[in-house]
Design brief:
The chain is an alpha/beta fold and 450 residues long. The chain has two domains: 55-247, no CATH class; 252-450, no CATH class. Helices cover 39% and strands 17% of the residues. The chain contains 15 helices and 16 strands. The strands form three sheets. It has a ten-stranded mixed sheet with strand order 2-3-6-5-4-8-14-10-15-13, with helices on both faces. It has a four-stranded mixed sheet with strand order 9-16-11-12, with helices on one face. A two-stranded antiparallel ribbon has the order 1-7. A hairpin with a 4-residue loop joins strand 2 (93-95) and strand 3 (100-108). The longest helix is centred in the C-terminal third of the chain and has 35 residues, at 415-449. The protein is globular and about 60 Å long. The N and C termini lie far apart (120 Å).
């Protein structure tokens, strides 16, 4: 009996002094992981990463609450994916010109209806899933119509990223309505849900977007039907006017409110049904440590060579006809009262130059973007040319502008992009001839009805 006890006692001592403390440490670590993510921060590269986006990581672009406590867990993302099965083409709208299917208002902002009645201008934008993170940077507080191209498993990248944006960025959750478009031959399909195993921080939308691309099971399509997606966003804008921009063109704060005041003022005096309002676009050097919130800050960046006209080195005719040298230097003489602090027409554009592609605010009845143009090149130019032929008046707004992060160069142009531009240049020639014939036919029809 004594020998048995002697043999057992060392084992008991070992359990007491070695294994039990280890069990305690194990429980402590588990509790730490389930609490606030400060311990996880040290281990995860995604959590510890500080955003390098000079235009997208300023305080005004971040969630309103403490970003260190603002995150999404893996289980929540997987739940969202389970609750959003692949879409059925049978319940979408089929567009024969590009053989695509569209679904409107898949996710609608909490204040979409309210904002649509209060605002005069809706912002329409379009994107592939790689660039969805730019939505978080917009300073637009009115209705925002976002069309997303989602072939195959890109649909699940969009589903998870949109959920992330809606939860982490109150402005997106309130004002944005998201639409989906995909090719008939590549409808939404299931994805590998186990591909995401990190916590998603709310202060790094670009990093999260790159992470969620792991849900993609096949390579992206080479051809992106830009104008179809532009029109999907524009047609779902319920307001009197809309401005269609690229996803990486960033709106300054209060642009929506100032435009509403402007259109309330001019429509009360003399509403123009065939007017288009030019919004200048500028590239801001990626090293700039702030995003300009007004014209004064933008012109300061221009003076310091930290900002320049959009596409000036890539394709100067893009904005050349907008006469931005006047916009940068001219200031209207006016009394500084509350009514005049908003936007006004600074000058008019009475000429038209080939390849002019300004960003325009147009009435709801304005022509859409011609959908024969796919990929890159001439995609916006077609609408501007048609507006010109239909005798729209072009007015340049003072104080209104958009910014694009980074100086663009032709080094970014792939051989595929160059071939698409060349193909669209041929399409543009036929487009102009067809537009001439169509307008003659419309004139005869109008004359026959009178």
């Amino acid at each position: 009996m004594l020998k048995t006890i002697l043999r057992v006692k060392p084992i008991r001592n070992f359990l007491l002094f070695v294994i039990i403390p280890l069990v305690g440490i194990h429980h402590y670590l588990l509790n730490s992981l389930n609490s606030e993510p400060k311990h996880v921060e040290k281990k995860s590269t995604l959590l510890s990463k500080k955003s390098e986006l000079s235009l997208t990581s300023r305080n005004e672009d971040r969630p309103t609450s403490d970003s260190h406590l603002n995150f999404l867990r893996v289980a929540e993302i997987r739940k969202v994916m389970r609750e959003n099965p692949p879409l059925r083409g049978a319940v979408g709208t089929h567009v024969n010109t590009a053989n695509v299917v569209q679904h409107s208002h898949m996710w609608v902002g909490d204040k979409w209806q309210e904002l649509s009645t209060q605002s005069r201008v809706c912002m329409a934008t379009h994107t592939t899933v790689e660039h969805l993170f730019w939505v978080a940077s917009q300073g637009w507080s009115g209705p925002m119509s976002v069309a997303v191209f989602t072939p195959g498993t890109d649909y699940y990248v969009a589903v998870t990223m949109i959920h992330y944006l809606r939860k982490c960025f109150p402005l997106v959750g309130a004002s944005a309505s998201f639409h989906i478009m995909y090719p008939r031959e590549r409808p939404p399909s299931s994805s590998n849900q186990s591909a995401i195993d990190e916590i998603l921080r709310c202060d790094d939308p670009e990093g999260v977007n790159k992470l969620l691309l792991r849900l993609r099971n096949e390579p992206p399509l080479q051809v992106y039907p830009q104008n179809h997606n532009r029109n999907l966003a524009k047609k779902n804008c319920p307001t009197d006017y809309s401005v269609t921009i690229d996803i990486d063109m960033i709106t300054p704060p209060s642009l929506s409110e100032n435009l509403t005041k402007f259109f309330d003022r001019i429509d009360a005096s003399n509403s123009c049904k065939k007017c288009a309002f030019v919004v200048p676009v500028y590239e801001v050097e990626s090293t700039a440590n702030y995003r300009p919130k007004d014209k004064q800050e933008l012109t300061n960046l221009i003076s310091n060579r930290l900002a320049r006209r959009y596409h000036i080195k890539v394709w100067s005719p893009n904005q050349e006809n907008s006469q931005l040298d006047i916009w940068e230097t001219k200031v209207l003489d006016r009394e500084e009262n509350e009514e005049e602090k908003g936007f006004r027409i600074l000058y008019n554009i009475t000429s038209y130059e080939k390849f002019w592609e300004p960003i325009l605010i147009v009435p709801y009845t304005a022509p859409l973007f011609d959908e024969r143009f796919v990929g890159y090149g001439y995609v916006r130019n077609s609408q501007v040319y048609e507006l010109h032929r239909r005798r729209y008046k072009f007015h340049v707004l003072d104080n209104a502008f958009l910014t694009h992060r980074g100086f663009q160069t032709t080094k970014e142009y792939t051989s595929l992009r160059k071939s698409q531009i060349e193909a669209n240049s041929i399409r543009f020639s036929s487009f102009k001839k067809e537009l001439k014939v169509r307008m003659k036919y419309e004139a005869r029809e109008k004359e026959a009805r009178t």
